[in-house]
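FORM 7B: Structural annotation worksheet

SECTION A. Query
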Amino acid sequence: MRTSLQRRRFLELLGAAAGLGAAGVVTAPVALAAPPASWRPVADDVRTETRWAWRHYVARAFGHDQIKPVSGGFEEFFAPGRPVGLTIVEALDTLWLMELDAELEQGVEWVKANLRFDIDASFQVFEANIRMVGGLLSGYHCTGEPRLLELAADLADRLLPAFTKSPSGVPYRYANLRTGAVSGPETNLAETGTYITELGALSRWTGDPKYVTAAKRAFEVTFAKRSPLDLLPYAVHAETGEWLNRTATVGPPADSYYEYLWDGWKLLGDPDLKSWYDTLVAGILAHQSEVVGGRLWFAQVDAFTGAIVSREQSELGSFFAGLLAEGGDVRDGRRYHDSWNVVQDRYGVLPEGIDYSTLAATSKGNQLRPEFADSAFSLWLVTGDELYRQRAKKHYDQMKRTSKVRYGYTILTDVTTNPVGRGDFCPGYWWSEQLKYYWLIFGDARRFDYRDHYLSTEGNLLKGARR
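SECTION B. Predicted structure
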């Protein structure tokens, strides 16, 4: 790696990256010995596949948001004709962790030379935060390149009107990056509560509290309106702060709201967030958990009565297994991951949605989802149980079998057919999430602190880079 990407000290104002973290938070135990010889070839294969896919992206779509790996084309994610190098930004810390330094340099140099946010277009605030702000911050944390922090702050400043222009403090869904115009007051828990770690890290690293203050205020409004059962409906109006429906779910569009309550405590040490997490998860366990066929699931219920509304479960909800384990409920985390593992065993690749009473697929595609592997990684860290490496290995093998195409990896349109149905795009999060989880669980990643780290909902490393 050239001088521009070598180790350097953080700006003195910011202090060492290790300073980010909750005092008194006990990190899950994990053995740090080198992985068994049987896992080393898997880790090496993950690295090889990452380099192969990156080279195709560079050859056919470099600077564009996402490659179309079947046709060799590309597409933009946030606004038509307005690329922001989403794949590059999402891949930065993954490339760094894998010690793919030549590829990392390509990405960082593109960002420094080309990435600007003076764009007259409305960007989805939630996605721009977790993907672009988070990706730039994790790239900064890993490389120390100050331009990445500057760009993260610039983008966050352009997104902040979604918070500051809202009468309630609950953010609008969209903000125009040039004009500051906001839109989309009808929103949901995930899009109002998935900011505290990115904006909290940004406040720590810039010394400006405005970012974390806005993120926490949005949490306060919705938590205060919880039902008498300590449940939250998932739809909310940004301008009034009032609920727009009655249904509570741990899946989308609520999922990462709960994740970021715990994460905000883990990364920032805010005891309010820990208290709110404990309250809401107790409500979920009391009123949404259901055992069917000996397997633990979480129903969608009426937040005010507890009546079951639906037994459909999104694959995205499988993140909750890892979150429960991280939060101290290892038993239920194991049980919920066991339930999803039965689905993996049945289909090979997890469908987007199932009816858990029958395990029938209700949404048959797969968007290269990372949540099952994410939870396997978290449970392995907490328990040290090799079972979760085995499950992650099957997840990886099935992805290679079904999604690898001529120019990379693609989404699936139907996992129930043989051969599977394929689409033609690779989401940016694939670079930030699956590849990273596979590398970390199979390899002894020398640049990762297995005892003291933080990975965001997008898999971005905001604490634990060993530079």
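SECTION C. Observations
Confidence is low (pLDDT under 50) at residues 1-34. Residues 376 and 406 are 29 Å apart (CA to CA).

SECTION D. Sign-off
Analyst initials: ____
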